[in-house]
Design goal:
This protein has 10 helices and 13 strands. By secondary structure, it is of the alpha/beta class. β1, α1 and β2 form a beta-alpha-beta unit. α9 packs parallel to α10. The protein is globular and about 60 Å long. The termini are far apart.
Length: about 325
């Protein structure tokens, strides 16, 4: 009888959403490797601070503690929401896999099952994201809607609770998060990406491990989706070139344009705006689907340069460095 193999240790945040998405990755890795995978719960600064994400600086607040655990050898690999990951990748860590992306859109959870455009005048909409505020307010201004965006924090239960107890008329959340915890049926409206562009990398996961662990990198790479990786690379390249952190009011989405079953091109869209929605820079570019990391990076940088030329820097407040 063979000896049981040592379990792999997967570092994860403690939130219900993080545990759900890490559990899904753990199951996939266990099936591939034939080894048990145990979840190691790690508390991050972003989980314990009561500040709003933008006040915390945003970049890395949910990631640093997980990366520290990797450095110390306390976990073998870690799962992050890609949109939380700083754009600079540490040399000692490998982004081993970016699995197939979930729905990148934002959704509304509103009282009385209302759609966004059916909310009453003066409706109070909760979100912790300056990006969502900027685009929701811009849409409202352009379409004669009267809304008030309200900054909120907390997990999914807390945020939806503000609607259930009547303090807010609606909240805006990521579709992917609700899907992963089995609550997408609570969404009352899916926001078109023409109305609200998602955060760069939204809906995608990032699986990291030590850069010198070649065997584990090879196993994890089997979870990688090449199309998702080039798309999120382009989006994050745009974010980095704008010198903006993940709490900045920047939306970006790279999607594939197909002719029937044949993928022809990739379109990258970007937006930067002031939270009140009164100033917005929104541009897009379309080109061949990037075949390399460098081509995807170039696509993002070129669109960012056009956005900066149209005044994007002045809309982001203090730029992150």
């Amino acid at each position: 009888m063979s000896e049981p193999r040592e379990p792999l240790r997967l570092g994860t945040r403690r939130s219900k959403l993080a545990m759900a998405q890490s559990g899904q990755v753990a199951d996939a890795v266990s099936r591939m490797t034939g080894r048990p995978v145990e979840l190691v719960e790690i508390t991050t600064y972003g989980d314990t601070s009561r500040e709003h994400l933008a006040q915390m600086g945003g970049t890395g607040v949910f990631v640093t503690a997980l990366r520290d655990a990797l450095h110390r050898g306390e976990v073998d690999f870690a799962v992050h929401s890609l949109k939380d990951l700083p754009t600079a990748q540490p040399e000692e860590l490998a982004l081993a896999a970016v699995p197939v992306r979930e729905d990148p859109r934002d959704v509304v959870v509103a009282r009385d099952a209302l759609k966004f455009t059916d909310l009453p005048r003066g409706a109070r909409i909760g979100t912790g994201s300056p990006r969502r505020m900027a685009q929701l307010n811009a849409y409202a201004l352009g379409h004669g809607l009267d809304i008030e965006t309200v900054p909120i924090r907390g997990n999914v239960d807390t945020r939806i609770g503000y609607v259930r107890d009547g303090r807010l008329d609606a909240v805006v959340l990521a579709a992917a998060g609700l899907t992963r915890i089995g609550r997408i049926d609570e969404a009352t409206d899916f926001l078109s990406v023409d109305t609200v562009l998602p955060a760069p990398g939204q809906g995608a996961l990032a699986i990291e491990c030590a850069a010198d662990n070649a065997d584990l990198i090879a196993w994890l790479a089997r979870l990688d989706d090449p199309f998702t990786r080039v798309a999120v690379t382009a989006e994050r390249s745009l974010l980095a070139a704008l010198e903006a952190g993940c709490s900045a009011p920047v939306g970006a989405l790279a999607d594939l344009l197909a002719d029937g079953q044949i993928v022809k091109e990739m379109r990258l869209r970007g937006v930067v705006g002031t939270p009140d929605g009164r100033s917005l820079v929104q541009l897009s570019t379309t080109g061949p689907v990037p075949e390399t990391h460098d081509q995807a990076m170039t696509l993002g940088r070129e669109l960012a340069a056009e956005m900066l030329a149209q005044g994007a820097a002045g809309l982001m407040g203090e730029r992150a460095h």
